[in-house]
Amino acid sequence: MECIYHRVYSVSEFSIVSNFYVEMSIVKPEDEWIACPSCDQLFAIGQMQHGETARCCSCNHLLSTYRNKPYEQVVAYSISGLIFLTLACSNPFMSFKSSGLESVMSLPQAISQIRGEGMWDLALLVACFIMIIPGIVLVLAMFLGLSLALRWRNHWAKEVAKVIFYLQTWSMVEVFFIGVLVSLFKIAHMATVGIGLAFWSYAAFAIFFTLALSRLDTYQTWKRLEELEV
Amino acid sequence: MKRITAMSRGLASCHLCQKVASSQLHHCPRCGTALHLRKRDSINRTLALLLTACVLYVPANVYPIMITDQLSSSLESTILGGVVLLIQMDSIPVAAIIFIASVMVPIGKLLALFYLCWTVKRGSSVSPRQRSVAYRVTELIGKWSMIDVFVVSILVALVHIGKVLVIRPGIASIAFATLVIVTMIAAEGFDPRLIWDKEEEQYD
After folding, report:
1. Between chains, do A59 and B128 touch, taking CB under 8 Å as contact?
2. Are strands A101-105 and A62-65 parallel, antiparallel or unpaired?
3. Beta strand extents in A171-226 (DSSP E only)
4. Structure pTM?
5. CB-based contact B132 A219, cutoff 8 Å
6. Measured between CA atoms, how close is B49 to chain A, in angstroms?
7. In A, which residues are within 8 Å of B155 by CB distance?
8. Number of H helices and number of E strands within chain A?
9. Total Cβ atoms within 10 A of residue A165
10. Cβ B132 vs Cβ B123: under 8 Å
11. Chain A nearest CA to B169, separation (Å)
């Protein structure tokens, strides 16, 4: 594999690329190969320091971010997120008052209301995107975080990681929250609109969800999973 | 600057776990996913899904996305009709959000992906760095078009006061949601590394 090193980069050539030792003399035996998913450029990547990010030098794609103790954080954030998701599902989300009549909506009620209008497919899609998929991802992230933080060897951790990385594109927590804000503006002039506990819980859930997933770096997570197996 | 790609060294990186392994292997040694040098039939799959999205674009815009029943009158509004209504109500920022999310983003995404597929097929040498950025933006903004579908869902769930005021979802809402999902799958199926493959031939 010697041919891979033949082009010599000096580390200082890319100041934002803090951890690339693609130089023959400094490629260490413990370094790993990583190919940029966006342009296929090959790099040797070494042990990174806390807060460092590695970027591809030809297309600037973010390859990896390293943090100290990320899996403990994943566990903490996903437990908090799950608590807020439970609160968001079991409390009134918004209320709408017009001409003396009031309607209160919670998230599960919203889904059954859409289904009641004969749009079961839309109800199913919305339920999946805003509650079911993010919920599953968080439960799995908690499990994966626990196994990685405690170095607990088990056969499911890899499968769990696969499901998380497949599903995370399909959760639309933050999009839904912006949608909620837009609809608040849309009906604010029609009637009195009240905001319930679930609204704030969902906002907190969205934040913790994003935080938990941001700590699961693809490269670092899989490297750790591989280390656990050996 | 010379590029050294994994492919040129007979290596393939797993599209799920990013493990770099010999391209002779059929499955990733780390996570067991099928291993390919490039995503299979990437361009054709993306083009097929883009055509599906174009077909879905018609019902999504022609049919009403939301139906407002107020006492005896019933108002059907399409996506663009909703934007016009918001402008008339002087909520310009909200109108702008809806317009960007449900009109500009889907069209921009379709055009960008068609353009990327076309340049890759033609072997164009238009700055791969810029095209890479275009792809990344396309991938990132894809799901934000769902805003309008969520707005309709919330209004449907919230606004139902006896028979006085009821909002019902229109058939366009499901067409539009499907459109967004199809374009998301199309963006995911496109392999951005194809943009750079031509570049390599030039330098090697």
Report:
1. yes
2. unpaired
3. 192-195
4. 0.88
5. no
6. 17
7. 183, 186-187
8. 8, 7
9. 20
10. no
11. 7
- Inform me whether the C-beta atom of residue B16 falls under 8 Å from chain A C-beta atoms: yes
Domain segments of chain A as ranges: 2-65, 70-229
A23, A5 in Cβ contact below 8 A? yes
Residue B152 · residue B66 · CB < 8 Å: yes
- At A26 the pLDDT is 52
B167 or A43, which is more confident: B167
Domain map (residue ranges) of chain B: 1-37, 41-203
> Tens digit of pLDDT for each residue in B122-159?
888 788 889 999 999 999 998 899 999 999 999 999 88
Closest residue in B to A160 (Cα) is B31
Task: Answer whether residue A24 shows pLDDT above 60.
Answer: no
Structure tokens at B86: 């918001």
CA distances, A196 to each of A89, B55, B142 (Å):
11, 40, 30
Class of domain B41-203: mainly alpha
Q: Which residue has the higher pLDDT, B9 or A160?
A: A160
Number of cross-chain residue pairs from A and B with Cβ atoms under 8 Å apart: 200
What interhelical angle do A133-149 and A197-214 show, nearest 10?
Answer: 50
Among A98, A103, A222, the residue with its CB nearest the CB of B19 is A222
Say what the pLDDT of residue B185 is: 95
Q: Does B87 touch chain A if contact means CB atoms closer than 8 Å?
A: no
CA-to-CA separations, B135 to B112, B126, B140, B193, in angstroms, rounded: 8, 14, 9, 11
Mean of all residue pLDDT scores within chain A: 84
Q: How far does CA A32 lie from the centroid of its chain? A: 24
Q: How many CA atoms lie within 13 A of A84 on its CB side?
A: 20
Distance CA A72, CA A15 (A): 30
E strands present in B8-163: 11-13, 20-22, 66-70, 73-77, 160-161
> By the CB < 8 Å criterion, does B59 face chain A?
no
CA–CA separation, B40 and B79 (whole Å): 36
Task: Give the pLDDT of residue A172.
Answer: 94
For chain B, the straight-line distance linking the first and the last C-alpha, in angstroms and rounded, comes to 11
Distance (Å, whole) CA B110 – CA B6: 30
- pLDDT at residue A70, rounded to an integer: 93
Q: What ipTM was assigned to the predicted interfaces of this complex?
A: 0.90
A82 touches B: beta carbon within 8 Å: no
CA–CA dist A211, B22 (Å, integer): 34
A89-A91-A96 Cα angle (round to 5): 110
**Contact between B2 and A189 using a beta-carbon 8 Å cutoff:** no
The pLDDT score that the predictor gives to residue A28 is: 62
Would you say residue A227 has pLDDT above 60?
Answer: yes
